[in-house]
């Protein structure tokens, strides 16, 4: 039996973090870069994978180069496409009934001209299955986003397609880490197992908390 080991790291603090960031593509702040350096320090991996968004991929390129590891930029690991809401100020969005409805029931509502929660779940779970098949026994380090990590956590715990527990009941700091494993049994069924969720211990003054 071969396990595949996954570590997902949320990007550090970006510019425009007062806005809803899906396909919007701001750079990391200096503090955000330092958060990711702190989160990835000492991690071992055979494969580095990243969302194409700059708040993930810029540091991923640096890390992969510094460790002399292969890097894959994979659209499956980018944040949900929030459509017409993408890049809007969160303060304004909270004043819209449609946004509140989406927050309360994300499986039943979709951002206007955006991507549904079911579509995000399908692409991310398919990516996990594909990587598990391609890299049995290897350690994978994936730089991704809050929405992706929250939904992976929900998937690991076999959540139901209702409610918003993955949004409202999980605190996820910038540069937080989610660890899990997968393995296939004799019937080729994939079994995922949660290994841990760790918040960032880095603070914006440039030193560990």
Automatic annotation (TrEMBL):
<dbReference type="GO" id="GO:0016791">
    <property type="term" value="F:phosphatase activity"/>
</dbReference>
<dbReference type="Pfam" id="PF00300">
    <property type="entry name" value="His_Phos_1"/>
</dbReference>
<dbReference type="GO" id="GO:0005737">
    <property type="term" value="C:cytoplasm"/>
</dbReference>
<protein>
    <submittedName>
        <fullName>Histidine phosphatase family protein</fullName>
    </submittedName>
</protein>
<dbReference type="InterPro" id="IPR050275">
    <property type="entry name" value="PGM_Phosphatase"/>
</dbReference>
<dbReference type="InterPro" id="IPR029033">
    <property type="entry name" value="His_PPase_superfam"/>
</dbReference>
<dbReference type="InterPro" id="IPR013078">
    <property type="entry name" value="His_Pase_superF_clade-1"/>
</dbReference>
């Amino acid at each position: 039996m071969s396990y595949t080991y996954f570590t997902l790291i949320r990007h550090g603090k970006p510019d425009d973090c007062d806005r809803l960031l899906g396909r919007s593509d701001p750079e990391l702040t200096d503090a955000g870069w330092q958060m990711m350096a702190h989160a990835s320090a000492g991690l071992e991996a055979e494969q580095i994978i990243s969302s194409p968004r700059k708040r993930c991929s810029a540091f991923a390129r640096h890390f992969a180069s510094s460790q002399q590891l292969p890097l894959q930029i994979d659209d499956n690991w980018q944040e949900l496409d929030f459509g017409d809401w993408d890049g809007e100020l969160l303060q304004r969005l909270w004043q819209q009934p449609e946004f509140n409805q989406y927050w309360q029931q994300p499986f039943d509502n979709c951002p206007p001209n955006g991507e549904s929660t079911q579509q995000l779940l399908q692409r991310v779970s398919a990516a996990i299955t594909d990587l598990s098949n391609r890299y049995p026994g290897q350690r994978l380090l994936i730089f991704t986003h809050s929405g992706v990590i929250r939904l992976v956590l929900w998937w690991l715990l076999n959540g139901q397609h209702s409610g918003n527990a993955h949004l409202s009941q999980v605190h996820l700091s910038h540069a937080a880490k989610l660890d899990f494993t997968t393995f296939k049994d004799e019937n080729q069924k994939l079994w995922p197992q949660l290994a841990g969720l760790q918040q960032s211990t880095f603070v914006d003054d440039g030193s560990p908390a």
